[in-house]
Design brief:
Layout: H1 17-30, E1 34-41, E2 44-50, E3 60-61, H2 66-79, H3 89-92, H4 103-107, H5 110-114, H6 132-138, H7 153-167, H8 171-180, E4 189-190, E5 204-206, H9 208-219, E6 223-224, E7 227-228, H10 232-238, E8 266-268, E9 272-277, E10 281-286, E11 291-297, H11 302-314, H12 324-336, E12 352-356, E13 359-363, E14 367-371, E15 376-380, E16 385-386, E17 390-397, E18 400-407, E19 413-420, E20 424-430, E21 437-443
Antiparallel strand pairs: 1-2, 1-11, 3-5, 4-5, 6-7, 8-9, 9-10, 10-11, 12-13, 12-21, 13-14, 14-15, 16-17, 17-18, 18-19, 19-20, 20-21
Helix pairs in contact: 1-11, 1-12, 2-7, 2-8, 2-10
Length: 444
């Protein structure tokens, strides 16, 4: 089986260590929390960048990067004659359509769904209940299919429904022998709707280490270990611009959201393409430089994350080799990369219990417990508590108690600060994926 070989230094794959150092400086200055990043060039792993406590082998929430894999499942179904690009949704899922569907609704094809051009109304991307497909289609269309770009994750869900209907398998199970196992990716988790259909547009969990061979296989035009693994016709259609995603205002080739959209892939500045997900989950392919950059992250501002990658990691392929001193500096820095935990000055608040509605803060001599109704966290003072999917710590500094939770399989953090008076605690909750708010908890 083809494996991705590692080089001892980035220069051996034509990547400058100085460029990677520039990237590390840039993300630190911008306050961006990438969790794990792989840089591939010429089929080799030029750099593995892990920011502790995160790593590159723990499955991570991919959010909309899942869409690119759902698209691949549709590509296999077309290759095997089970679907066609112009197959109408109503011909595969007639039981999900409302009575007397409109002409536009009846016209939606697999191609339209893949290019985010279904014409479905925006409210169709905000449905729930027991039958998502019926709920989506009940919303109807506000544009003729194929004529208007509108990003719609439930449209991708309908692709997953189509694949499952014609294959008798979920997208995940269908991809296992066709993609995941041939690329050595194992059998990943993919969340399902109440009806047991992979949600398609999100919900896939993969590590950076698992994303990397997918990106390299894309770069190799679907070839892996001397065999055509990904369908070539699908790949050629998926990675070019199939629709103007500015709806007539562009295109904007130097804008990451205005350079065109393919089959669940975005066209990028620099003639690249990418699959991406919320909080900066990326698989970016640069054919000109023979490069792939993939990462899992906790970055709310995807644009800033992309700029750092474009301006430093891809640019590292255009730079001269770094000096021996810079190469050594990079290796030392990579070995020490870690996000900080709260510092602790040794002081401890008076042990007490504080409450506000569903929130309880329990302060003890050596640890603190925070109960947020649906989750409970324990924070050791000045130490890190390890569990399978969460790490937590707290510390007192200058009269403020800081509590930090990191979810190791996703972007989210809870970063709380608490100050105390004689009879109350003022708790400010913030973090990645959290809406900041302040509560006054009363001491019991």
């Amino acid at each position: 089986m083809q494996m991705l070989p590692y080089v001892s230094r980035p220069e051996d794959a034509g990547i400058s260590s100085r460029g990677i150092l520039n990237y590390l400086d840039a993300v630190k200055e911008a306050g961006l929390e990438h969790h794990a990043v792989w840089v591939l060039r010429h089929g080799q792993v030029a750099a593995k960048i892990n920011f502790a406590p995160y790593d590159d082998h723990t499955p991570h929430m991919l959010f909309s990067l899942s869409k690119s894999f759902c698209s691949a499942a549709a590509g296999f179904a077309v290759q095997e004659g089970l679907l066609q690009w112009d197959t109408k949704l109503i011909d595969v899922l007639p039981e999900k359509f409302p009575e007397n569907p409109s002409e536009w609704l009846r016209a939606i094809t697999l191609h339209d769904l893949l290019i985010m051009g279904s014409g479905l109304k925006p409210e169709s991307d905000n449905v729930d209940g027991e039958d998502w497909a019926k709920a989506v289609l009940a919303c109807g269309c506000d544009h003729q299919p194929g004529t208007h770009f509108h990003y719609n994750s439930h449209g991708t869900y309908l692709i997953s429904c189509m694949v499952q209907k014609v294959t008798g398998m979920t997208c995940r199970d269908y991809l296992v022998p066709r993609l995941f196992e041939p690329l050595g990716m194992g059998i990943p988790k993919w969340d399902c709707c109440p009806a047991g259909v992979n949600v398609g547009g999100w919900g896939l969990w993969l590590s950076c280490e698992q994303i990397a061979p997918f990106g390299q296989c894309l770069l190799q035009k679907g070839m892996w270990d001397g065999k055509q693994v990904l369908p070539r016709e699908w790949l050629d259609r998926a990675t070019i611009s199939q629709i103007d995603n500015t709806n007539g205002e562009g295109p904007w080739p130097e804008n990451s959201w205005g350079a065109g959209y393919g089959y669940q892939f975005w066209r990028c500045p620099g003639d690249r393409y990418r699959g991406d997900g919320m909080f900066a989950q990326f698989c970016i392919v640069d054919e000109k430089r023979d490069m792939v950059v993939c990462c899992v992250s906790g970055v709310p501002d995807i644009g800033k994350a992309l700029d750092c990658i474009y301006n430093h990691l891809f640019a590292a392929a255009d730079m001269d080799a770094a000096s021996k001193a810079e190469q050594a500096a990079l290796q030392a820095r990579l070995e020490a990369l870690a996000y900080p935990w709260p510092t602790h000055d040794g002081t401890v608040p008076i042990p007490s219990v504080y409450r506000h509605e569903g929130v309880t803060l329990t302060v003890e001599a050596e640890d603190v417990t925070l109960d947020l109704t649906d989750e409970q966290f324990t924070f050791p003072m000045g130490k890190v508590r390890h569990s399978e999917s969460i790490q937590s710590s707290c510390g007192m500094q200058d009269g403020t108690l800081r509590l930090l939770v990191r979810y190791l399989q996703g972007p989210f953090t809870i970063d709380a600060a608490c100050t105390f008076t004689a009879d109350a605690a003022e708790l400010t909750l913030r973090g990645i994926g959290q809406e900041e708010h302040t509560l006054t908890l009363r001491r019991e």
